[in-house]
Amino acid sequence: MARGTQDTNQITEGVIWKQLLIFFFPIVFGTFFQQLYNTIDTIIVGHFVGKEALASVGGSSTQIINLIVGFFTGLSSGASVIIAQFYGAKDRHSLRQSLHTAYAFSAAGSIVIGMLGFLLAPRMLAWMNTPAELVADSTTYLRIYFAGILFVFIYNMGSGILRAAGDSRHPLYYLIVCCILNIVLDTVFVVVFHMGVAGVAAATLVSQAVSALLVSFRLIRGETMLKLSLTQIRIHGPILRLLLRIGLPAGFQSVMYNISNTMIQAALNGFGTDTSAAWSVYNKLDGLFWMMSGAFGIAITTFVGQNYGAGKTDRVKKSVRVCLGIDLLFSGILVIFFLVFRMPLFGIFTTDAEVMRLGSWMLGLITPCYIFYVFLEVLSGALRGIGDVIIPLIITMFGTCLLRIIWVAGVLKIHPAVDTVIFSYPVTWIISAILFILYYSYRKRRL
Known about the structure:
mainly alpha; 17 helices; 85% helix
């Protein structure tokens, strides 16, 4: 826990920049290990199976998974926000009800989404204009993934709850264990038993099951203020309504991002397998930025939520300023790293010269504009921490979904080229960043 003593909550009492970094680093390293075991899948498939399998694991199937899991992760952020606020206010009764409602909701949601995803996998791939030679492997990967989606939901909900209470260390420990397990299983299933894409999916499923069990066991053995009891897992109506009031807009906001990414993937699929494979590898490298920025988003949501619950509005405002400054600094460093080492980085994933050329070119176009996205992540996370989710949803719908639909439907027809698709990201990030800055400035004056 981010607590100095039993009675002192460092998130609401400690030095902000120091506590932000203490809280941030376990999150970002945890996300790194989560990204690492997804990346290991890509590396092993790219080197031991082929570029068609590489595109199957990292192309359309990844976008579909991100769309669905992203929606649930957004929903689970509703639980994280209310738990952070109840934790800051030291409301034990509401904390217990929130915890058990969140777990019941995760289990119920995973059953419905798992069945639908398993049945509709081929149709979803067809909607995305997936190349015919990739459909069979992509369907296999998706169906195995959806068969174990309960573990994904439980882990995401459980780790979000721990972080909301200030514990960002244990989710990191569990991801390290599961990353190592995934690497071992990938090697055994793909390299030794030659199971191909099915082996990669099975390794991921087993690893996610272990992570779900570990995070749940931590909550079962947790402190009195936040302790999971399997016999008390049930939905409490008022808590569920509060969770959905905050979580649904956040879920739809995540969907807006992923729908636009899915549209981009579908547009790029039309340029052939080399382009699809290059974009797949780029997404793995791109994930380094998203894990860092996402970690700052989680950190600021927790900081704002707990301090807002404790009635410390000045500390809320200061934590947002500090988080923006640190995130901008870290993002700038990462941009320079990507630009300098882009060709060697792509060489880690594939030896195909055309895939490397296309991918490094894509990276050079997009990464300098990461700086603008920092404002979207931090400001939307801060607004979510105080329970303000409707206007951020509207901004996201306009900036990252509607504008990209217009771009792909309009500009791409005028200039049908890969770079036209790529530029949809920088343009919409800049417009959305401006809107978020204006709205946050207005909202901050009303705290």
